[in-house]
């Protein structure tokens, strides 16, 4: 059995100091910062000496050569384990990890409270027409308050695409505080499980037709990419509100803009974008019916502390020979276990 520390590399920065504090308390770990202020080849050489990779979850913040793809993994034969910095893992190809025998985990649930609060906050602000009222006041067009007639969230029908950690907490808030009827479209869960999470299981068509508010809480996958397109917006109730705190590319931004301009969709709250941050001339940033945030739903002191601590503990688990929780590619386990034993001289269980 090797006594060498389990070396973990990260590019540029970590989301919160808690990661460094937690890993520093484990003598089995060695954490290496790989700065962006050096040639790409030097960065790759440093990462090639690592057993684990703590990878940014936001695809536009991480240089493309360091996205976890077949090409990168071919340069990292020592790599055993990848952990994303959040619940998402857009810069990582799970199938490439499986082909390379590399275990992948995320930090699902660590920021669920922050994201759920953000989603519900957007629903409230849009139904009350905050952005339109603000824009009208700035333009000197707010002489009559009735022009900003809003709606209550109480008793509305809210449709959730996805009811995992964030969707479940969102449903809980909507049920407890606003007595909403909550619908959920999630093909991976049965009706009983969804009911236990506070919602009714429905198909996509039913959710779009019946929801006053549509909120997206599913990961970006080949199945969900482009799922909320022009046809989906057209199928929503006239005057529906659209909210997403999930991932860019699930909804079609141009189709949303057209639906807003036609008046079919009343308002939208967008925390995620095709390009992050979006260009300053993006039309949705300048639409008074839109509240825009920069993928900050989960960026709170509490959630960042939690997700980075969870990640640090996952690296400690692997260093100690334990399978970590939140595995994204479970099919890799046998090959990963064989590679781990060959590299570390001990079994992982």
Automatic annotation (TrEMBL):
Q: Which Gene3D superfamilies match?
A: NAD(P)-binding Rossmann-like Domain
**Ranges where the D-isomer specific 2-hydroxyacid dehydrogenase catalytic domain occurs:** 33-329
Q: Which Pfam families match?
A: 2-Hacid_dh, 2-Hacid_dh_C
Keywords, A to Z, come to: NAD, Oxidoreductase
Determine the domain of life of the protein's source.
Bacteria
For the keyword Oxidoreductase, the answer is: yes
What sequence ranges are listed for the domain D-isomer specific 2-hydroxyacid dehydrogenase NAD-binding? 120-297
Q: Which family does the UniProt entry place this protein in?
A: Belongs to the D-isomer specific 2-hydroxyacid dehydrogenase family.
Query: Which protein are we looking at?
Result: 3-phosphoglycerate dehydrogenase
